[in-house]
Amino acid sequence: MSSRFCHCSFLHLLIGLFIFGSTSAISAHENEDPTIKTMEAFSGYPIHESNSLISDFVSSLSVETQTLQNQIDELSTFSDSPAPSVTRILYSEKDVLARRYIKNLMGLAGLSVREDAVGNIFGRWIGDEPELPPVATGSHIDAIPYSGKYDGVIGVLGAIEAINVLKRSGFKPKRSLEVIMFTSEEPTRFGISCLGSRLLAGIETLANNLKSTVDGQNISFLDAARSAGYANDQDDLSSVFLKKGSYSAFIELHIEQGPILEEEGISIGVVTAIAAPASITVDFEGNGGHAGAALMPTRNDAGLAAAELALAVEKHVLESGSIDTVGTVGILELHPGAINSIPSRSHLEIDTRDIDEKRRNTVIEKTHQSATTIANKRRVKLSEFKIINQDPPALSDKLIIEAAEAASKELNLTYKKMISRAYHDSLFMARISPMGMIFIPCYKGYSHKPEEFSSREDITNGVKVLALALAKLSLN
Ligand SMILES: *[C@@H]1O[C@H](CO)[C@@H](O)[C@H](O)[C@H]1NC(C)=O
Ligand SMILES: *[C@@H]1O[C@H](CO)[C@@H](O)[C@H](O)[C@H]1NC(C)=O
Ligand SMILES: [Zn+2]
Predict the structure, then answer these.
(1) Which of 74, 76, 433, 437 might form a disulfide with 271, Cβ 3.0–4.6 angstroms?
(2) Ligand 1 centre from 220 Cα, in Å?
(3) Where is the signal peptide (predicted)?
(4) Is the pLDDT of residue 403 over 60?
């Protein structure tokens, strides 16, 4: 044990040194860096050997790929739709079984497991300095209807495996390492995305709203949570909130959900920013009428107002001049929805995203102006223009980007810095912790459908980069 301990402490130094390598090198030019001497004295090894020792440590990181694949496959069987599709809805019977499966794996990895009032699950590997804020990683395992088995899952099962990788290598963390399984990243049941991480970030309006939130079957959030064994003692969900600074770093491993890495043949994406969505609902009302009898000059067609607004959204998005601004009208409903009836009501749901909050908010303002103008011109009533959410985008933390880049380099993996255009729990963790993300390629960029796929090799690479980045951050 004692020789193992020495070895571990030495790894601390090596990886710690690597993280601050560039900083020490700069100061060493100005005056001898005293920390290098201390490290040499303490480790008993001359520092010039450190490169080969780092590479020994990096080569010793081995992922049990087959075991991990088996776990991914097994988790996918907790589903309410037939394979290869996966449907796993918050607090359903299958979700509860899947949660049990995750907690069991955390236990087998030697993590101490805790759950909060909404079922965010935390598995902690206690570090040598447990009083320091831990480094966290994690993702979600809920799955929208008829989706695939990799979205989110890679960031939970892969994170538990990353811990196992580090344990097998003999590594001992300084800061504790924590795996988080977030509750309800998908908005399927209660219409709220990233429910668990939003609450962790301390969003009080959400904690209040959840007291009266119901699902499509009129089952309240709290009743649903209780049926899954959560929120037992209290209606007040503020116990879930975490203080800013609870973690020194949060890093999420995820499939890209886009085609770039696969098309360019690159192994790892290091995320520098997460675009943030805003959602808007719009309703127009007109007089409707018979499609034959009402003549064109007399009409006020709520459907045409909606059509015109959909085109206006596209125009305002393109006016931003940036490829990073996007806008989508994903829902356009007409009432009464008959071929021979002029639409008397129309309902649009608009999603717009950007990594630049100001630019995105400009799109929202212009869309609002257009809605008003169109309503006047077409003599319909703009009965609703409601901003459902307007989350700020997040930038990744410099140290976490550097840790992921350094890990990729040391593992001889190609990587590129990129933007996450989909959002993730990381967007909300960024409010309470420095944040970063690691992407791996996925087949044709498919996600949210059964064809979603990442190769074993890509998953293995992602887990290794995560493990090494966690090791570095834990010594930070
Ligand atoms: C939903 O449930 C609540 C309380 O049980 C009840 O008061 C309400 O009428 C229900 N709403 C619908 C639409 O069924
Ligand atoms: C990366 O490549 C270098 C140079 O070819 C080699 O020495 C090193 O062992 C490789 N590292 C890993 C983890 O494969
Ligand atoms: Zn996801």
Answers:
(1) 437
(2) 10
(3) 1-25
(4) yes
